[in-house]
Specification:
Number of helices: 12
Helix content: 40-55%
Largest sheet: 2 strands, antiparallel
Number of domains: 1
Shape: elongated
Strand order of the largest sheet: 1-2
Structural class: mainly alpha
Number of strands: 2
CATH architecture: Alpha Horseshoe
Radius of gyration: 18 Å
CATH superfamily: Tetratricopeptide repeat domain
Mean pLDDT: 74
Low-confidence stretches: 1-86, 93-101
CATH class: Mainly Alpha
CATH topology: Serine Threonine Protein Phosphatase 5, Tetratricopeptide repeat
Distance between the termini: 44 Å
Strand content: under 5%
Length: 316
């Protein structure tokens, strides 16, 4: 169905996505996408841009949108539509659709509302090819609407089109003219970091993750993404076990130690520094919390740690 948009709608009234599966169910085969609402209300935003009003669907710590921070209030609206790829090569590469594509208080014209509503319906139904096509067409017609590029980047990420993700994020960052808040920007940098990592451009990916980290004090996603590269890169010049453990520990704290994909990253970090006892401990916890589809990948990594081998992105 079409979204009902009231006068003066902000992001909270524009894109609506609902979770199709539980978090962590997707792997490299791209089985699923997580669909959540790309909605905010001006009242949700506070001065930092990180803390937002809680919605009923996001109050449970068992839901994805309630794990990013030791402060539930800080984390709840920080949730993003994302799926983890717990595959052997990339670990928890996180795809996401920013929950705040539009800045708080942005007033939409009737045309913008209709345009965003159309794209939102496609995303809500997991029609990512159509969403990518629609957002690309709309962005071409209205290059000043940076949020259309953000939607395009999100669709491209779910279609495993990293070059298109990078192109769309570049355009969004270039055209937002200060309209994006810090969380918007952090999520865009994270989208681009994941795309760069997929293309093997690890140093650039780390730089983008760091930009996201600098912008957001409460988001574990960018920290876990960087930690995974520092832990598992095939390039010894990039690997840094101590940094990986530090970032992964921050991410684990921000997710209340309940995000299996983050604990999987923490295990990889400990393995990189040679602490295989801790690596096994955290991988076992990830297995306990993981989905049926992710558990085999976690078990595979656990076997490595049990024989004293760190995990590499090219491990079999």
């Amino acid at each position: 169905m079409w979204l009902s948009l009231e006068a003066g709608a902000t992001l909270a009234d524009i894109f609506q996505l609902k979770r199709a599966t539980s978090m962590g169910n997707a792997n490299l085969s791209g089985i699923i996408l997580l669909l959540i609402c790309l909605l905010i209300d001006p009242a949700y935003a506070v001065s930092s841009g990180h803390h937002h009003k809680t919605t009923g669907k996001q109050t449970s710590s068992k839901k994805h949108g309630s794990k990013h921070s030791s402060s539930k209030h800080a984390y709840v609206r920080h949730g993003v539509a994302r799926h983890h790829r717990a595959n052997r090569s990339q670990g928890p590469t996180v795809e996401q659709v920013p929950e705040e594509i539009f800045p708080p208080g942005h007033l939409f014209t009737p045309e913008e509302k209709a345009e965003a509503s159309e794209i939102g319906v496609l995303v809500q139904n997991g029609m990512w090819k159509e969403a990518f096509k629609a957002s690309s067409k709309a962005a071409k017609a209205h290059p000043e609407r940076w949020w259309l590029q953000a939607a395009r980047a999100a669709a491209a990420s779910n279609l495993n089109r990293p070059k298109d993700v990078i192109d769309a994020v570049d355009a969004a960052l270039k055209t937002n003219a200060g309209d994006a808040n810090r969380l918007n920007l952090a999520q865009l940098y994270t989208l681009r970091a994941n795309a760069l990592s997929r293309l093997g451009r690890k140093s650039e990916a780390l730089a983008n993750f760091q930009s996201a980290i600098n912008l957001s004090k409460t988001d574990p996603v960018c920290r876990a993404g960087a930690a995974w590269i520092y832990s598992t890169s095939a390039d010894p010049q990039i690997r840094n076990g101590a940094t990986a453990v530090g970032l992964a520990t921050q991410a684990a704290k921000l997710s209340a130690w309940k995000d299996d994909t983050v604990l999987d990253v923490l295990a990889a970090g400990y393995a990189e520094v040679g602490d295989f006892k801790s690596a096994q401990k955290w991988e076992e916890k990830a297995i306990l919390l993981g989905s049926a589809q992710d558990i085999p990948f976690y078990q595979h990594r656990l076997l490595n740690y049990q024989i004293g081998k760190p995990w590499r992105e090219n491990s079999n």
